[in-house]
Amino acid sequence: MAIERKHQMGAGGYCVCPKCGRREVHQSSVRCIEQKCPACGSTMVREGSEHHQKITAKKG
Ligand SMILES: [Zn+2]
């Protein structure tokens, strides 16, 4: 299981709103969960994170 991809949880990436699906560029100084969705005001999550996957799985 050593598929190396340049997809780290460090810098870069996106924050996603679990409510309306809005994506915002993640700022390294601010964690996604400390960001509010500019559209609906919900707390955002890091795209592809465990938390995000749980939310998307729930919709299933
Ligand atoms: Zn939203």
Characterize the structure shown.
The protein has 60 residues and is α+β, with helices and mostly antiparallel strands. The protein has one domain (14-59). It has one helix and three strands, in the order βββα. It has one helix at 50-59, and strands at residues 14-16, 23-25, 45-46. A three-stranded antiparallel sheet has the order 2-1-3, with no helix packed on it. Strand 1 (14-16) and strand 2 (23-25) form a beta hairpin. The longest helix has 10 residues, at 50-59. The radius of gyration is 12 Å and the shape is flat. The protein starts with 13 loop residues before the first strand and ends with a helix. The site of zinc ion has 8 residues, from loops.
How is the secondary structure organized here?
Elements: E1 14-16, E2 23-25, E3 45-46, H1 50-59
Antiparallel strand pairs: 1-2, 1-3
Zinc ion binds near residues 17, 19, 37, 39 and 40.
The SSE string, one letter per element, is EEEH
Shape: flat
Share of residues in strands: 5-15%
How many E-type strands? Answer: 3
Largest sheet: 3 strands, antiparallel
The distinct bound ligands, ions and cofactors come out as:
zinc ion
Strand order of the largest sheet: 2-1-3
Distance between the termini: 26 Å
Whole-number tally of structural domains: 1
Assembly type of the chains comes to single chain
**Which blocks of ≥5 consecutive residues have pLDDT under 50?**
none
- The class by helix and strand makeup works out as alpha+beta
Mean pLDDT rating: 85
Helix content: 10-25%
Distinct helical segment count: 1
What is the gyration radius calculated from CA atoms?
12 Å
